[in-house]
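Hi F.,

I've been meaning to write this up properly since the lab meeting, where we talked about keeping a consistent format for the predictions we share between groups. The idea is simple: the sequence comes first, exactly as it goes in, then the structure tokens exactly as they come out, then a line or two of notes. No screenshots and no reformatting. I'm using this chain as the first example so we have something concrete to point to.
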Amino acid sequence: MLFNSYIFVLLFLPIVLAGWFQLNKYGRYKLAEAFLLGMSLWFYGYFNFNYLLIIITSIFANYGAYKALSRCRLCTQRKFIFFSGLSFNLGILFYFKYFDFFLENINAAFQASFPLRHILLPLGISFYTFQQLSFLIDCYKQEVPEYSFLQYAVYVTYFPQLIAGPIVTHDEFIPQLNNMANRRLNWEGLAKGLYLFTLGLAKKVLIADTFGNAVNWGYATVASLDSINAFLLMLSYTIQIYFDFSGYCDMALGIGQMTNFKLPVNFSSPYQSLTVTEFWDRWHMTLTRFFTRYIYIPLGGSKKGACRTYLNTMAVFLLSGLWHGANWTFILWGACNGIFIVASKHWKNFFCKLHPALNWLVTFGFVNVMWVLFRASSIQEALQVIKKIAMLQFSGIRPEFTNTFNLTEFRMVLSLLHLDILNRYPYFFMVGFFLVAFLLLFSNKNAPEHAAAFQPTAGKCFFTVALLVWCIFSFSGLSTFLYFNF
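Output, unedited:
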């Protein structure tokens, strides 16, 4: 189920809020947890019922490993249970996400003809698998208290973060589930949560999807683009992916606040970063935390000399690239990020001497180029876009590109007001969208910070309702989130 759908906004979410708080109000706490679990499974299995079998099997297997580790005291047996659980999780992830990619490369390397399975990637499998991996590792390290199966199942399936993050740790979520104060309806939290949800919905529906239309047109006509159109294509995807993913995370945080659960912030104005290292400290923060805590530090982190630090950094970014998708574009994307960070660490003194504005320009430029590799269907297509930009051939912005920004609601308003702006200024709405996007990207406060300072005044109430209604009327088709693919 999508956050940006009629069934979610007008039916699913009201039922969740009413059921959760009413059951808790009458002291039916276990039933309330079971209700939340059932609604989360409905949310997950809405598009494909078969997804439920995979996630339920995963939950039972991991909880079984947790109980076995809790009871077992012998070191060899604990290692066997742990590595069995680890293999199970990674095996599921490999089969559904990487098996066809593995066969394709085997066929290409050895002129073999193994048939591809064309396996449908289950939604959010990377997210809930990593979440359960973190739980299993903490179990092995004996850092997990006693949890019931129902508590664990709610932790894994809690619908706001289930299919695109943030990646939540057990000690962040389950203690909140056990806090009876969180079971009572909090009108202030509800107001702040609705405000944040609406801001995230607007990011997705009004900004990300609009730039997405331009991106889709551009990548469908790469061969015919000149430098200015290729450059705008690159910039459009940079904007789209931020507002798409951060919009989802804002909505997840907002729903969490409505139901009195505090989820970790996943973005902190990453495009304002002065270094690529800082960018990754601000972008998809819970994934960075996972790789730091469970890969980088166990490998030795930065405590075993410069060479080992560089190798550990490269390992993390290669794994990060592979986590994002079964394609060589993602692996190369991860490798390039790792190489750039290693280079910036090695020549730290040089970068420190640069003016902050130049550091930002280098960082933002590098991130833009990397997003080309991230979005392209192949390395050849990515190089073609970059080559188009580098050729410096300009022939004007294509009308097909600018038309993607001329939304139906805008054209209706212009028609009602008898204004002929688009004929005289065909770039009017395109320029407006870019200005608004950059203003939001580089403003002093991001959406979670605005929500934290939210005070329910009449003006903000009207703004929230008006923006929410605009978003609902702008729903069209099934506009999935980009990170659903990962």
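Notes:
The longest helix spans residues 75-110.
The CA atoms of residues 40 and 133 lie 20 Å apart.

If this format works for you, I'll send the rest the same way.

G.
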